Amino acid sequence: MNATNAFPIGTPGQPWGDVEKRQWLEQTTIKRSYSEEVVPKIQALSSDFEVAQYGQLQYDNNPVGESRYPLFVLKSKTWNDAKPTILITGGVHGYETSGVHGALLFAQTEAARYQDKFNIVIAPCVSPWGYETINRWNPDALDPNRNFVANSPAQESAAVMKMVADLGVSILAHIDLHETTDTDELEFRPALAARDGIEYLKGSIPDGFYTVGDTEKQDDELQKAIINSVRKVTHIAPADENNQIIGSDVTQDGVINYPLVTLGLCAGFTDCQYCTTTEVYPDSPKVTDDECNRAQVAAITGALDYILAR
């Protein structure tokens, strides 16, 4: 690994204040449209799901993008409290494109096969501002996927947590759809180090799909089922020379584990029995955007088929 402090905002060794956060925000730009690329796909599913607005992001002093973003959830029309409930989240990091469109593709193509067994809840784009700016953070320079905590300061995280609490049911399984991209090392991790006033240690990006399970609820068989389902669509990330992926020990082919609740990660907030975070690598020369979306679908179906077989 190489140490560097190359991020252009802030003073090395000093955490950002309001001035630096504003400088970071003002250098972001809108690159695509949530209202044109995502919302119509959500609304088009109204014949198969109940489409509901569960909240609205409000960034009144945001100079980049909209000041308000409606947040939508898809819920089974055949809801029955006696059935177990499955939660699928995408776009917690808005820049991770296949998380959003993979969730919607599952709703379009595969969800009907599971509606008689499960209540299905899908929040396909948790962070629409991040989607539009292709960003990991929200306008407050907060990472929603480190803020699934009580009294969350991240609007995106707080809104999803409230929506799930308002369902009034236990969540059996939570599948959180993510990507690991080249920009994680080129932009987002250097920005994180600069924001927090710490040294950036360069890492490496694995070429392929992997999952992140829960250290506190390690379920090797669930993760194995997901990996085996996804490998029919795309390749699985190999371990590095230290038998690690992004600095964490590989427990089996394509699987690492994090303490999800401790880190405030999305997949940990529901206290569910079955959970996973998927990680697609869209920058690989071996894949297309369609394959990335289908890999997310395969991860969901692999998990649900495993649960049904229990």
UniProtKB/TrEMBL annotation:
A Pfam family found in this protein is: Peptidase_M14
Assigned protein family: Belongs to the peptidase M14 family.
User: One GO molecular function term?
Assistant: metallocarboxypeptidase activity
This protein's name: DUF2817 domain-containing protein
| GO term, biological process aspect, one | proteolysis
Recorded hits in InterPro entries, A to Z, give:
Peptidase_M14
Q: Describe the location of the Peptidase M14 domain by residue ranges.
A: 30-310
